Amino acid sequence: MARLLPAPRDALLAQAHVRRFAPADALLRQGATDRHAYLILAGDVAVHVIDSSGIDAMLAVRRRGDIVGELAALTGEPRSATVVAMTRVTAGVITASALTNVLTTYPTAAWELVRTQAHRLDWANRRRVDFVSRRATARVARVLADLAHEIGSGNEQPIRVELSQRDIASIVGMALNTAENALRSLAHHGYIERRYRAVLIVDLAGLAEFADWDRDNP
Predict the structure, then answer these.
(1) What is the pTM assigned to this prediction?
(2) For residues 6 and 121, what is the distance between their CA atoms, to the nearest angstrom?
(3) Pairing with 109, which of 33, 52, 132, 138 sits 20 to 30 Å away (CA)?
(4) Which Pfam families match (predicted)?
């Protein structure tokens, strides 16, 4: 939604009220039946799903300009995921009626929402393909390259990815020790540096080449 034209973006923000969240606060909870969405104005949030066995899996990170909770707001179905603040977060609360009004009034906003959903589906599909076709280290490298592309500004490096090793393991879909070994290997090659609850990408070009990742066709 960060690519919204000024008119629909301003209309959406005009109907939103601002809330602030501390790290670890839940913005949305899986299974809840409330009907509103959030437009992230500052900070990062993590999307989690808890399966029937109680395992908590981190699926994605959303950042400034992203909208979360829009599907439940539009369909009225229970929420499919929990969204938790990773940092201090400022977000605009958007009611279901306000979201519907903006999407109806501004077709470009509806089109951008479709593009956002398509991008998220593509991300999930790439993770599934990687799971069956690539080795563990390449899978981690491809996720880091994707995240760096979303976070990075121009060619400035290093790019800091604020995720723990456990978070990365969950997003990629592998055991923690496997992710640790993969990150250790990428650090040994000089592509990344490991930090406390973060990864610094110091050679994005090398990482992308290693992962067979291309920004136009990841």
Answers:
(1) 0.84
(2) 26
(3) 33
(4) cNMP_binding (PF00027), HTH_Crp_2 (PF13545)
